[in-house]
């Protein structure tokens, strides 16, 4: 499986670990786990025996359903938080979401309760920051949701059509861009402690708008890596329970994307 910028997907088991048999796309028939992934061995693995040991293989429907449930809970939690005016819950919810995400990543095991807890916590957090902004700029919350959904499905089409191929070179380029963005964010944060506005990357000016567009672009293209990791998981036949892990990975990217789109829209709505 290719490397990905999303740390959650790095812990997905390979065919070699799961031991599932899959169809070789080149027409070689049923191959053992390592043969289909990296050609490490060519022994046949009985899928019936494999499913008895670790459960049935994951399917696209599993990923879609778990991601839809996670996203739906986040939307409901965010809506209720924004409508109730409990914006004070944003910070503790972000802390809970961060702690849960670290547990999921380092635990290296899929967990429906943790994935759903993360989704609800981040939904509350996003609702807490979106509510006041939406009061200041009416309709911006809906615009940010539509924008996030549009980018998600747009990048899914890009991935499925092969308009942009996820190659090792593309992955390295995108991960480099992501590191650069994070470094600039941290540098701007540190600079803001000493000078008003820091480097101007988050003050709403022209440079801030340009930076937000770049960040949104990086987040959007990182979805391609997420889709590729999920696609490879299905081809590798990892256990179906890992659909919760994939849903968690996708949610982390969507949360990041939503925040950046909301930020950009707020810049554009400033007088």
UniProtKB/TrEMBL annotation:
The keyword Transmembrane helix applies. Pfam families: BaxI_1. InterPro entries: BaxI_1-like (IPR010539). Keywords: Membrane, Transmembrane, Transmembrane helix. The chain crosses the membrane at residues 73-106, 112-133, 140-161, 173-195, 207-225, 245-265. This is Bax inhibitor-1/YccA family protein.
